[in-house]
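Hello everyone,

My group is preparing for a crystallization screen and wants a predicted model to guide construct design. The compound we'll soak is adenosine-5'-triphosphate. Before spending weeks at the bench, it would help to have a computed complex in hand. I've included the protein sequence and the ligand's SMILES below. Output in structure-token form would be ideal because that's what our pipeline reads.
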Amino acid sequence: MTERQQETEAPPLLETRDLTVEFPNPAGGWTPVVQQVSFTVGQGESVALVGESGSGKTVTSLAVMGLTGVMGGRVAGGSVHFDGRELTALPEREWRGLRGPGMGMIFQQPIRSLNPAFTVGDQIAESVRRHLGFNRKAARTRAIEMLDLVQIPRAAERVDDYPHAFSGGMCQRVMIAMVMACNPRLLIADEPTTALDVTVQERILQLLRELQEQTGVSLLFVSHDLAVVAELCQKVIVMYAGEVAEQGTAADIFLRPRHPYTSGLLAAIPKPGLRSDRRLEAIPGSIPAPGSWPAGCRFHDRCPHREPGRCDSRHPDLTPAGPANEARCLRTSEIELQGVTVA
Ligand SMILES: Nc1ncnc2c1ncn2[C@@H]1O[C@H](COP(=O)(O)OP(=O)(O)OP(=O)(O)O)[C@@H](O)[C@H]1O
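Reply:
Good plan to model first. Here are the tokens for the complex, ready for your pipeline.
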């Protein structure tokens, strides 16, 4: 067996199967906000979870981290396997050993995730002391090493600075240092560059790429921005109204999307680096709220390719479409959708 075959056949690090998450509704019941979401993240792979605001990306990634309950929701169905273990019924005390050395998460507003009352060094050190049992001195050394790894200049001095002394981009580096200090196998990054200037954004993406090369960490990258995803991810999962609309290799999704929603997202994003012959156009309408998902295809009322009487009555399954994609569209084999070229 070749090395490549072995790689392909290795079990994924993360696998969600039919994951369904619900939140309480004002009527006293539960409303699904994420429904039957299945995807995998392989060892060392970088996978993007994309879609407009409200599509269910954050809820999905927080469910992977076992944080649904903290938000007041519940996993109502499906499974999450991480490194061979099923996590949805894992007791909280076992989660504590898994978050940190198993998986870590960074967010859009790093400054909010850091405690303003402690130096960044103390916060990184605390994380490795708690999760890896380092003593005080070793933890401080690790904190400096990590600040150095995320390319914060003069790491040995800056380790004693408080978060307010760092810019937004530098705070995000500190957060990455804190999470990576425990050597996680999976890094979940939820819109980590959205709040940053374009040039800073570029540098953070570059850093994530380098960290992946150096450490082999797997990446689940949550973003509404397909252009950013194009630079970083091998696989793309497109979410719409709480479910997967399309998933496949990034190359295939960008060049030849199989779901009109993906094609719409590609057309709506102006970025150098992505070339399209089409005029920029936003997808008309807005994403329906959980509990108000329309019958049939959930995207049908915004879709330029909808067929009345069909798309508004039958809910499509996710079915193979193209060499490496799956799409949830009844008309996928009948329509020609335009993609973009990644420069
Ligand atoms: N704690 C909560 N209680 C009730 N509903 C929630 C809660 N958190 C999220 N939701 C709902 O779940 C749906 C999906 O939200 P989610 O944050 O996952 O979307 P998203 O795609 O990550 O969007 P964004 O990019 O804006 O974060 C939304 O309709 C949201 O209102």
